[in-house]
Each structure stands twice: as structure tokens, then as C-alpha cells.
Amino acid sequence: MTQPVVVLRPDDAGRVAMLHGTGFADPWSPAAFRDLLSESTTLGLGAERSGTLAGFVLVQTILDEADILTIATAPDFKRMGIAAHLLKSLMSRLGERGISRIMLDVAEDNLPARSLYEGLGFSEDGRRPGYYTTGRDIPVAAVLMSRSLAL
């Protein structure tokens, strides 16, 4: 079943931060999310399931490009297609706004995420060696990925 996608607002910052904390060794604070969601250049989308925030994605737009800042799925909702659904909705909305390219970076060792992005048409543009260090004994590269949103 497809989950409804909602536009996140600054007052969603607490639950977004809580969900972010379930998937990242260095979670962002509610204040950081509130500030981001208050910016006109930031778009946050959330997937709701039974009144719970099951996943979210945050993107920042600059001119005709967008950069995915972070994406997370709640542990109880992983492997249910929520991240793919959010990303497809995001790309559709961005395309309608005239955004022509979307970019992201992902840890080299995050194979499920990389597979998801590749399946959605993202391709590797480069790498930043040793970029991801938090929560790791050995730093890993960031894989830079992007895809066109041009119609």
C-alpha cells in the first residue's frame, strides 16, 4: 500500500529528529531540523503510517539543482518501499518546480542505500575518500551520486 506523503513543517522537527536518531550515529537536533524546515530552500517530505512518521527525506534546492541532505526510515518500516516512495515523490515535485538535477552522497559501505539510488536512476559522479568517520573504526568514502530530472 502506498503511504501518504506530507510536506514537513518546522513543528515536525521533534519527530523528524527522533526518527533521524534511530539511523545515524550523529543525529541532528530538533533545533537543526526546525531551522532547516524553516528555510524556503528546504523541502521535507514525510511518509505517514498509522499516525507515525515512517520515513522522511530532506532536500535543499539551489537554483535548478537539489541536494538530498538526509533520508531515514523508521526501523519497523524498513524494506517496505517507503524510501523509494519518498524519493519518487520528491523527484516528481522537484521536476514540477523546474529542478533539473538531484544530488546526494552516501557511505561507500551502505550497499542497501546505494542499490536503492541506482534503482532510481542515480549514477556515481565521484568519491570523497575518508568522508564518513562517525561511528566507524575505519573511515569510508562518500560516493557522490546524481541524476537528471529533466523531462
TrEMBL record:
Keywords: Acyltransferase, Cytoplasm, Transferase. Its EC number is 2.3.1.266. It catalyses: N-terminal L-alanyl-[ribosomal protein bS18] + acetyl-CoA = N-terminal N(alpha)-acetyl-L-alanyl-[ribosomal protein bS18] + CoA + H(+). GO terms for cellular component: cytoplasm. One of its GO terms (molecular function) is protein-N-terminal-alanine acetyltransferase activity. Residues 3-150 form the N-acetyltransferase domain. Its main location: cytoplasm. It is found in: Cytoplasm. It is an enzyme of class 2 (transferase). PROSITE patterns: GNAT. The keyword Cell cycle does not apply. Acetylates the N-terminal alanine of ribosomal protein bS18. Belongs to the acetyltransferase family. RimI subfamily. NCBIfam families: rimI. This is [Ribosomal protein bS18]-alanine N-acetyltransferase. The lineage of its organism: Bacteria, Pseudomonadati, Pseudomonadota, Alphaproteobacteria, Hyphomonadales.
